[in-house]
Amino acid sequence: MIEDPQQEIAQFLRRLQWVALGVAVVWLMWLLSPVLTPFACAAILGWMGDPLVDRLEERGWSRNTSVVVVFCVMTLAVVVVMLLLVPTIQDQVATLVRSLPRYQQWFYDTAVPWIENRFSVRIADYLDFSHIWELLRSNWERAGGVAKTVWGYVSRSGFALFGWMANLVLIPVIAFFFLRDWDLIVGRVASMVPRNHIGTVSRLAAESSAVLSGFLRGQLLVMIILGVLYGAGLWAVGLDLGILIGIVAGLLTFVPYLGPISGVLMGLIAALMQYGDWKHLVLVSIVFGVGQVIESYVLTPKLVGDRIGLHPVAVIFAVLACGQLFGFLGMLLALPIAAVVNVLLRYAHERYTHSQLYAGGTPTILLDAGQVVAEPVDDANTP
Question: What is the rounded CA–CA span in Å between residue 382 and residue 218?
Fold first, then answer.
């Protein structure tokens, strides 16, 4: 069937309008990224807390009461994490700074001679280790006072200080309203979708939310649990930097193999520098071995599952690309964008496998409701 050229032109213009609208939205986000940052943070918090509010409503609680309870729990959790985590990390960084001379001596007296004798190379002649260690030490000393550094950066400008404080106050306020009116916002957005596409849009939105919630909630819990396990295990082994190494290894577990490998390497090096015996090397290996068994057979199957569909490389690329384009706002929106794009790509592949181009014979049409209808073939035109 040959389509009317005017219809083809009209369809092309409609698609061009959508592309222009998308470009305009991206450009506007780029311009307003500093202003939109607290709203993006609040929207993510509201989206993550809405299922808990809905569950409380199902038990007979009012919406306002449910929102207040969930909001207080989320606020308390953030405060507790900050009170516990920030001082601990700062103490660990201070311990690392104090231990740098000892690590430097171990590197000169033990590591370099072993490498040179093992591989018959001279590395001390090509690298100025004293300069490298001094540079590393100065950087860690500056990083040791994290709160002081951040406060000094913020307080250089009164306007920057005002903006930082305003965002800090706005995020919980806006998050509360997002929690309270989340269902209303979703309903109004759904009411704007053309009725002949509401089924498809609802399906894609549900899949995107499931992918993103599964990844964020599940992987966040896995990272926290493994960080606690690694930190507690290495601290029990006796490593001075065990908690810091455990936290870093836990944060890196969202990338398969990178988290445990980096954690094992850091733990083994710290054990060698601090004790220099096989006993502590074996104990560090046992800590990470037990953690990997728990992650592989308990945490990941129970908390994350296999329905995510977000490859770690795609996650890293999304965070870096969006961060480069939109700064901190882009980093916040990277995972939602990656989840939506992943779902749209799966849907495009599904449509393609039901298209005439893929079938090569009798084409099928995938309707919005998910029904598959075979398109009749004109026998008179069939050779």
Answer: 53
The encoded tokens of residue 96 equal 């690392």
Please give the span between the terminal C-alpha atoms of the chain, in angstroms, as a whole number: 17
Task: Judge contact between 339 and 208, C-beta under 8 A.
Answer: yes
pTM: 0.61
Contact (Cβ atoms closer than 8 angstroms) between residue 291 and residue 230:
yes
Three-class SS state of 378: coil
Taking alpha carbons only, the member of 245, 251, 218 closest to residue 232 is 245
By the 8 A CB rule, do 33 and 329 touch? yes
What are the sequence ranges of the domains in the chain?
A: 34-189
Residue 372 DSSP SS3: strand
Mind listing the pLDDT tens digit for each residue in 91-117? 887 887 787 777 777 777 777 777 777
Q: Tokens at residue 348, please? A: 């495009």
Produce one character per residue of 66-95: b if its CB has 16 or more CB atoms within 10 Å, e if not: bbbebbeebeeeeeeeeeeeeeeebebbee
